Amino acid sequence: MRLLIIEDDLEAAGYIQKGLSEAGHLVDHAADGEVGLEMARSADYDVLVVDRMLPLRDGLSVISTLREDAVATPVLILSALGDVDHRVEGLQAGGDDYLTKPYAFAELLARVEALARRRDPEAVQTNLQVGDLEMDLLARTVRRAGINILLQPREFRLLEYLMKNANQVVTRTMLLEKVWDYHFDPQTNVIDVHVSRLRAKIDKEFSTPLLHTVRGAGYRLQA
Question: Domain 127-221 class?
Answer without folding.
Answer: mainly alpha
